[in-house]
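Lab notebook, bench 4. The sequencing result for the construct came back, and we need a structural model before the next group meeting so we can plan mutations. Quick request posted to the team channel:

Model the 3D structure of this chain.
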Amino acid sequence: MNRRQIALPEPGDVGSMVLRGAAGFARRHKVITGSYLFGILVLLLAGTGTRLTLQQRREYNSIMDTIDLQAEFEVSQRYAMAHQAYRASAGWFTCDSLCTRNKQRMERVKSDLDAIRREGHARMSDAKAVAGLFSEVGVGEVKDKFWSHFNKGKQFAKRQSMWDAMFIGMRSMGRDENMIQYVLKVLMQVLLNFSMGLIIALVVFIFGLWGVVRDYQANPIIAVFFFLTTACAAFAFVATYLMGMFGAAIGGVYGLAKVAESNQGRLNQGGGRQQQQQQQRYMGHRPHYE
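Done. Here's the predicted structure in token form:
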């Protein structure tokens, strides 16, 4: 008795289903679709930012050179020592006179460190204002921040997927699951981890983006336009990356399913021919009294 087989759709049918689903999603979510298409356009047309003129570069470097990094380093060292002394003298729930003096000294040093950092940040903001938000300095800083968050999201997904693969393997051995079931479970978990890691990285990047834009002291309209443009571009890149991952995974699973279906068909044909040959041999050697 042959088992009932499920016929897989042809690649053309799968492509048409994907196109119909994408068209339906675009009609229902016009804002998301418009933001994605605008972000793709920005990614295709955006460059590295406008180059600084000689005068801008001189003024930018002149302001950056006024930031006293050595003073910040020295005060940071003093704060670390004061914080260590306070922690060493503090009790679990009490703070004696020595602990109180150490705490007061730590707070004074912390106040000095904050003042130096605020001054350095203000001078750095003035230098960025000279360069401009759409300059190579501004665009480069935003790109560096995006790639930093994006790589952190991928690293999180890779670490989580490694642990998930190990635990799924242990559970699969206990349930006597075959290799195909294990691979499919790991694949689904990898896709879930990458989706979660990259979406969180995108959200963190967008929330921190306005702080970067604000440092360049740009016109409010220009600042909002730059923020929205960059957010759309980041969203489009992450969405395209995830769609590529899901498409490759679905294509691989579909290819394996087609191979398995073809092998099963050949086995069924071979089994049918073998059964027919056995029936013919049986019919050809029946006893004469039958």
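The helical segments are 11-28, 30-45, 54-65, 69-89, 97-131, 136-175, 179-215, 220-284.
Will bring this to the meeting.
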